[in-house]
């Protein structure tokens, strides 16, 4: 189904076309947008100013002519011209109420389906094998997962791909460390931590002892040549790492349709280089093969190093061709931190020159910080992701115990898990992805601000209202009663409910889950005002059921919206 914004935008474009049939206004933005100030109406269109430049007429005159051609179908109660030519639109209460009833009956809650028949691959998380997941991994993981959920809600077929760092120089170093420094007992209890420890020791030896470094290189060569013993060790590193990764993903509620490391594409790399050579896209420079991208205003990109090893760009180009051949996607999206922007610009340009047809998009995000400063593995200050999640659940449990001391202990633990994990994810997803995130417990777990617990509590409060109505009026079926917007707070709530589909669409189009989070927070605030100022159970029959019905729709939208962000909604907190 169409959203109200889509309906209004189509009507506005048709009105401009009818008012000015001889003018080409197709390049102009004539869409309706939510009004920033409700005193001006529900939606507005600023297109008359741009159209006036094309038409060479006064903007107000252009706006008036367009408004005169808006349909009289009962959707818009009032269309006004303001300022230099703003078109302000106020929806008719009856039309708005009927639209909410349609949304409530729709399993998709009014979310449009522009992605039907289209396929996307979203590449996210991508930790390195044999290294613990740290707080720095959380942004790619939760942003990528949210974008996958949001696009699926819009009808896309989406494959989430965890492109593991499972190949490269570090494995020769790790093999040396494993054979010389391994604590077998530690490997049993905390395998990835132990692999990280022996890697660090071996890396230090490489810095201190040239012979050790040479041996590590020799072990890498043996691995790359298929040596059975080194291959077995390498596979063991992957298997142990995946057990740990999957445990953390389980805590986060994150999953993938594909888990393919860099090694999956190794056999294709020589062919990629040959193709680049045949197309004249690379040339030798100081023993290396280099793609020069001056025409793209980009620095040179190494595709094969002087020692014969391949660069990340080569693997990424091979990955694009593999995905095109196997899945035929309509788009491939990469979710990484801001430090990789140059790499993606280079390899996108190279892949396109080499014949890749799929649109490629890089969604980069700022780094996560704690009040103490930037989290850095190089400086040894990285915080393990497990520890952050443990602390989140511990702090959330105290909140739940205080709010619901009579709740059974096992239920308290389950609710605390949903609240704590939700708080961590929302603290990230509610921010503009391209902003640096400074994480604080006070903000993440706040019960009265823009936080997951605030939204979860709003949902739980609605569940309580509906339960109380069922207890007091067991014979009454509120679902059969029409929605009536009889109060200012009811109408404000209705307008925000009607915008849910647009919020999901905007979050996908702009690749910002934060836009959906903003809409959910705005809805929760409107509900809070509604809850505090409008009586429910004491209202007259008919009005009472209408208000309960509105509550139920808010609950559905909150539950669905938070689910698209990967956040659970307990019925009680």
Structural features, described:
The chain contains 21 helices and 15 strands. The chain is of the alpha/beta class and about 575 residues long. It has three domains: about 5-90, Arginyl tRNA synthetase N-terminal domain (Gyrase A, domain 2, 2-Layer Sandwich); about 120-265 and about 315-370, HUPs (Rossmann fold); about 385-565, Isoleucyl-tRNA Synthetase, Domain 1. A five-stranded parallel β-sheet has the order 7-6-5-11-12, with helices on both faces. α5 links the parallel β5 and β6 (about 155-160). The radius of gyration is 28 Å and the shape is flat. The relative contact order is 0.10.
Question: What is the strand and helix layout of this fold?
Answer:
Layout: H1 4-19, E1 33-34, E2 43-45, H2 47-55, H3 59-67, E3 76-82, E4 86-91, H4 93-105, E5 119-123, H5 138-153, E6 157-162, H6 170-181, H7 184-189, H8 191-208, H9 210-224, H10 228-252, E7 258-259, H11 269-278, E8 283-285, E9 288-291, E10 301-304, H12 312-327, E11 331-337, H13 341-353, E12 360-365, E13 368-370, E14 373-374, H14 385-403, H15 409-429, E15 437-438, H16 441-444, H17 452-472, H18 488-498, H19 500-509, H20 513-533, H21 543-564
Parallel strand pairs: 5-6, 5-11, 6-7, 11-12, 13-15
Antiparallel strand pairs: 1-2, 2-4, 3-4, 8-9, 9-10, 13-14
What is the average per-residue confidence, as pLDDT, rounded to a whole number? Answer: 94
Rounded to an integer, what's the Rg over CA atoms?
28 Å
What portion of residues is helical? 40-55%
Spatial order of strands in the largest sheet:
7-6-5-11-12
Largest sheet: 5 strands, parallel
Q: Specify the oligomeric state.
A: single chain
How many domain modules? 3
Low-confidence stretches: 374-380
The CATH homologous superfamily of the largest domain is termed HUPs
Which percent band covers the strand fraction? 5-15%
- What is the number of helices? 21
